[in-house]
Amino acid sequence: MNYLTTAPLALEALLAEVSAPHCGGTCAFLGTVRDGPEDGGVTAIEYSAYDAMAEAELDRIVAETRRQWGDARVAVRHRLGLVSAEEASIAIAVATPHRADAFAACRYVIEEVKKRLPVWKKELRADGTATWVDPSGHPSMVGPQ
Amino acid sequence: MRSASGTQGTVRVRFFARYAELAGRSEGTLTVPLPATVSDVMKLIQATWPGASALPAQPLTALNLRHVRLDARISDGDELALLPPLAGG
Predict the structure, then answer these.
(1) Residue A71 gets which letter from DSSP?
(2) Other beta carbons less than 10 A from residue A38's beta carbon
(3) Which residues from A are below 8 Å from B18, CB to CB?
(4) Which residue in A73, A120, B47, B70 has the fewest CB atoms around it within 10 Å?
């Protein structure tokens, strides 16, 4: 399975992948590149990954989701390379027979991705600076690009 | 390099993102006296490549595409990856 792509993410394709007659609830999640008031003028994020491990880790996360929610149909794509503000960096679609499981399983996928996926992002700013993002709260400048 | 028992293994070491910038390389190969743990190899990495001394002594690590703790055992032919704080999603 190729979960990683440099192409823009198409949610419709993921929804089609998980669609099934026995599934009455479908939950979709999009993570997008943010430039909020505290983000300092982020124009884009450059995503990089330990590709082989990220693919393996997503395989494991999807398998766990299917184990935990027996009837779940799961589709995930993570974008790599340069992603502009407001564009999606991750798309997840989960379909299950009933809605509660769809929400729970979709949440499980994104939370495990955040904890386990070997993916890194460098925020690029309008002033020409770039910063490696450290979610634990210790950003490190890497200088003008 | 030779341990008391004389056994040694080859480990492929990979650096990513900020750690690759700090180490000045994205990968390298080390000959490691066995038995050894990830922590032992980490010390060897920092002693071998000058830029690697800037890396944390206890980074997040993966062995053969799986997250491992620093006390995980190393085998000949393993791929050890040093992972900066994860930021996927």
Answers:
(1) T
(2) 6
(3) 120, 132, 140, 142
(4) B47
